[in-house]
Design brief:
GO molecular function: rRNA (guanine-N7-)-methyltransferase activity
Family: Belongs to the methyltransferase superfamily. RNA methyltransferase RsmG family.
Shape: globular
Radius of gyration: 17 Å
Pfam family, one: GidB
Largest sheet: 7 strands, mixed
Number of strands: 7
Structural class: alpha/beta
Low-confidence stretches: none
CATH class of the domain at 66-210: Alpha Beta
Subcellular location: Cytoplasm
Keywords: Cytoplasm, Methyltransferase, rRNA processing, S-adenosyl-L-methionine, Transferase
CATH architecture of the domain at 66-210: 3-Layer(aba) Sandwich
Length: 212
């Protein structure tokens, strides 16, 4: 199949990841999100990736590779930036209560516009730093995409963690020295290899929790 348009590539990649076609509302919202991102990016520089086909792969499909590892409940997307992976996940999983956390005001303004324009009642943009954010109740899952290091991510999220909290770290090429550098209070539950349709680059998901 010739991937001539972002719509075609999204459909093909979605079938590969979900094993089904996108529902009409899901597809409409994913494409509307990319359109809004493109328009805001001209002024606010939210992403360095500007090619629409590449945005489908590196933003939407990359975010959706973790779907089967995300449990229902409260999901905190730490350092969400332009809303990745939280916005795509919230579109496909309306059972999630997604907090989009970032310290940059321009990104939170963009995400508030996403919430209004796409009608996403299950997302809540919050301007704060992960290490100082203390919601009540705490999240069930904290996810981050391309955080500086696993140890830094765990340290910043520690104040949010309970015995039932999971940390999901989305990584590219996985450096084993990062795993070895995890503090002793972190339990490494799994390292999953992810496959993004259309991308040959390595992708991994590191799943962690509090050591009992």
């Amino acid at each position: 199949m010739d991937r001539e348009t972002p719509e075609e590539w999204l459909d093909e990649g979605g079938r590969a990841l979900l094993g089904r076609d996108f529902e009409a509302t899901e597809r409409e919202r994913l494409l509307a999100y990319l359109d809004l991102l493109g328009r805001w990016n001209r002024t606010y520089n939210l992403t360095a990736i500007t090619d629409p086909l590449e945005q489908v792969s590196r933003h939407l499909l990359d975010s959706l590779t973790v779907l089967k590892f995300v449990d229902a409940g409260r999901l905190l997307d730490a350092g969400t930036g332009a809303g990745l992976p939280g916005v795509p996940l919230s579109i496909i999983r309306p059972d999630l209560e997604v907090t989009l956390l970032d310290s940059a005001g321009k990104k939170i303004r963009f995400l508030n516009q996403v919430r209004r324009q796409l009608g996403l009642a299950n997302i809540r943009p919050v301007q704060a730093r992960l290490e100082s954010y203390r919601p009540d109740p705490p999240p069930d899952t904290v996810i981050s995409r391309a955080f500086a290091s696993l140890a830094d991510f765990a340290a910043a999220a520690r104040g949010l963690m309970t015995a039932n909290t999971r940390l999901l770290a989305m990584k590219g090429r996985l450096d084993k020295t990062e795993l070895a550098a995890l503090p002793d209070w972190v339990r490494l539950d799994a390292v999953e290899r992810l496959a993004v349709p259309g991308l040959q680059a390595e992708r991994h998901l590191v799943i962690m929790s509090l050591r009992s």
